[in-house]
Design a protein that fits this description.
The chain is of the alpha+beta class. The chain has helices at 2-20, 25-28, 52-61, 72-83; strands at residues 33-38, 41-50, 65-66, 93-101, 104-107, 135-139, 145-149, 158-165. The chain has a single domain (2-165), classed as Mannose-Binding Protein A, Chain A (Roll). The structure holds calcium ion. Calcium ion (CA) binds next to strand 7. GO terms for molecular function: carbohydrate binding. This is C-type lectin. InterPro entries: C-type_lectin-like, C-type_lectin-like/link_sf, C-type_lectin/snaclec_domain, CTDL_fold.
Length: 192
């Protein structure tokens, strides 16, 4: 009997612990967005097309980073989300948090890009060493494989994803997102 009780208690503790780890409240309150959790990271999918530097700044303002994909499991998860019924964005591309600087691709978290999922012929470095394609994005027509694109000019604005550490139990002191009310309504379906 005691063994059964201990087992039930263990299961409860595990389930309770899993539920307690969630996206921070201020993240789930961002307009035009959708959240999902994978491997102890909270991902915020923002349905608002902006230039790459604006996307980076929005993620930073919220206390997060832009999306980094550093292994195949994370790539598969992000792809599943982008193809999911809940998040079927009508967009051609979604920014990654990777930028070409000092002859290297780097994530906004400062780490060097090692895992990659470039589409065939990418990064194409348009105009060679005088590249204007210094920011990375996932392209829908290529099954969300990666392309390099101009970071912030003309019509090159896209949706983006931010990432955050999960809330730990007892760690939910209300934080107000400075940009939460500043999102533009771009006429797309509101996703929460
Ligand atoms: Ca390219």
């Amino acid at each position: 009997m005691e063994a059964v009780y201990t087992t039930v208690l263990s299961v409860f503790v595990i389930i309770h612990g899993a539920c307690a780890m969630s996206c921070p409240d201020f993240v789930t309150e961002v307009p035009h967005s959708y959240t999902a959790v994978h491997n102890h990271v909270c991902y915020l999918f923002v349905n608002n097309e902006v230039f790459w530097p604006t996307a980076r700044d929005k993620c930073f303002e919220l206390g997060g980073e832009m999306l980094s994909i550093e292994d195949q499991a994370t790539m598969d998860f992000i792809k599943d989300q982008l193809n999911s019924k809940e998040l079927r964005w009508d967009r051609k591309g979604v920014w990654l948090g990777a930028r070409y600087r000092n002859s290297n691709w780097e994530w906004t978290n400062g780490r060097r890009v090692s895992y990659t999922n470039w589409a065939s012929g990418e990064p194409s470095k348009l105009f060679g060493f005088l590249s204007v394609e210094d920011c990375a994005q996932m392209r829908k027509e290529d099954n969300w494989q990666w392309h390099d694109f101009p970071c912030g000019s003309l019509k090159f604005h896209y949706n983006y994803v931010c990432e955050f550490p999960l809330n730990k139990p007892g760690d939910s002191a209300g934080r107000v997102a400075p940009s939460a009310s500043g999102q533009e309504d771009n006429g797309n379906v509101y996703l929460k």
